[in-house]
Amino acid sequence: GFSLFGAVSSSMVLGLPALYYPSPVIGSQALVSFYFRRSALDWLLFVACVEGGVVWFMKKTYLFLTFSFSSSWPIWGEVTLSHLSVFLLLVFFLGLTIPGLLILAQGSSTQSTKFRSIVGTVVCLYAILHALIEWLLFLEKEPMYPAVLIIVTSGLGVSTVKRAYRQGSLNATAA
Questions:
Q1: Which of 7, 31, 84, 174 is such that its CA lies 20 to 30 A from the CA of 54?
Q2: How many CB atoms lie within 10 A of CB 168?
Q3: In whole angstroms, what is the distance from residue 71 CA to residue 78 CA?
Q4: Could you write out the three-class secondary structure of the chain?
């Protein structure tokens, strides 16, 4: 009841078109279901629904802009704002996936061990993409991303991984 009301209300506040209202409603229901059942499918459904709203926001806000970064990547050459938006969507998806996987990885069952290895892979992918985005923004001619933020996010990442390893949510390979 309350989660559905909150989902629709927050959708209205954020200006989400009525066509997209089912996404936050389904997502909030999946989150409540995950809280009680601890099902990976419920968490992935929640993440997919939230990602749908983020895709709508990025498309509405950034994807129509034509901007190229001054630094280029060896793979693509010129990097545009559209490329950065896709990377941000991937980082957001991976970042939303991690908390649910950490919850599912707690314990000593065989399933928990399987989730620990999945968490390690997702955390590594997240760190790589996050570092690429920071690198791109830091190398821009105009100051867009200060070096202090790179140090802060790196320190927070290392401390978070150490804590997850101590709690048993990450295996030694991933940490």
A1: 174
A2: 13
A3: 7
A4: CHHHHHHHHHHHHHCCCHHHCHHHHHHHHHHHHHHHHCCHHHHHHHHHHHHHHHHHHHHHHCCCCCCEEEEEECCCEEEEHHHHHHHHHHHHHHHHHHHHHHHHCCCCCHHHHHHHHHHHHHHHHHHHHHHHHHHHHHCCCCCCCCHHHHHHHHHHHHHHHHHHHHCCCCCCCCC
Closest of 82, 124, 81, 98 to residue 46, by C-alpha: 98
Whole-angstrom CA distances from 141 to 72, 136, 137 are 12, 10, 9
Distance CA 146, CA 67 (A): 20
Alpha carbon 2 to chain centroid, angstroms: 25
Residue bearing tokens 């802009």: 65
Mean local confidence (pLDDT), 36-57: 90
- pLDDT mean over 5-28: 82
Instruction: Give the separation between CA 57 and CA 128, rounded to whole angstroms.
Output: 24
Backbone angles phi, psi at 143, to 5 degrees: -65, 110
**Average pLDDT over every residue of 32-47:** 92
Range of weakest confidence among 85-89, 109-113, 163-167: 109-113
Residue 138, both tokens: 């830091």
Structure tokens at 123: 């955390």
